[in-house]
């Protein structure tokens, strides 16, 4: 079982191309340098992730793109099996890819920027409600909030004083930015998602 995130950059034609380098670097980080990612049609992408890391990865990708204000990103997460695994992600097939495409296609109608689709309908309903609530804050991340979320996710073992040293900001401004981004609540959602996903998979 794998996770596939399909996404595109919102309004990419109206904004500077600085998001492209951010996206490439972010995809390298989340695919752990295994190159299981692809950018196509200019502003669309796909990346393979461990199923349990899908929510955290989506939050990280969003933070990386939101740093390039006013850029934003739409993403559909699909969890499922792989039927044919090819060198190019776009040529692979299986439920993970179908689910990801379905989740992505549902975004416009649902008027949201992130959704998940698995083979467990009750799980999807529950997690998508949590995602919608999380998006209330994630969609309004400003530059500093996005920068701090990105930094915190890249350095999860560091405390805020150490994040302050890296960023050149004061500890209070790091703390304030993460609070404004509702970082701890998003991490709580991620924890609950992992727990419920593992319960479904192990049944």
TrEMBL record:
It holds the Pfam family SatD. InterPro entries: SatD. It comes from the Bacteria. This is Transcriptional regulator. It comes from Pedobacter paludis.
């Amino acid at each position: 079982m794998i996770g596939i995130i399909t996404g595109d950059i919102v309004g990419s034609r109206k904004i500077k191309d600085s998001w492209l380098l951010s996206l490439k670097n972010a995809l390298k980080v989340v695919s752990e340098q295994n190159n299981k990612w692809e950018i196509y049609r200019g502003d669309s992408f796909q990346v393979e992730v461990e199923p349990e890391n899908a929510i955290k990865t989506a939050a990280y990708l969003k933070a990386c793109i939101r740093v390039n204000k006013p850029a934003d990103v739409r993403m559909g997460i699909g969890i499922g099996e792989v039927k044919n695994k090819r060198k190019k992600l776009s040529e692979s097939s299986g439920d993970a890819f179908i689910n990801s495409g379905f989740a992505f296609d549902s975004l416009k109608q649902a008027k949201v920027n992130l959704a998940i689709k698995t083979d467990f309908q009750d799980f999807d309903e529950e997690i998508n409600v949590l995602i919608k609530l999380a998006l209330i804050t994630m969609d309004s991340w400003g530059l500093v909030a996005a920068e701090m979320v990105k930094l915190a996710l890249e350095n999860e073992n560091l405390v805020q004083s150490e994040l302050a040293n890296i960023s050149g900001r004061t500890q209070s401004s790091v703390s304030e930015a993460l609070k404004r981004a509702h970082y701890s609540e998003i991490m709580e959602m991620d924890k609950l998602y992992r727990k419920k996903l593992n319960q479904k998979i192990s049944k």
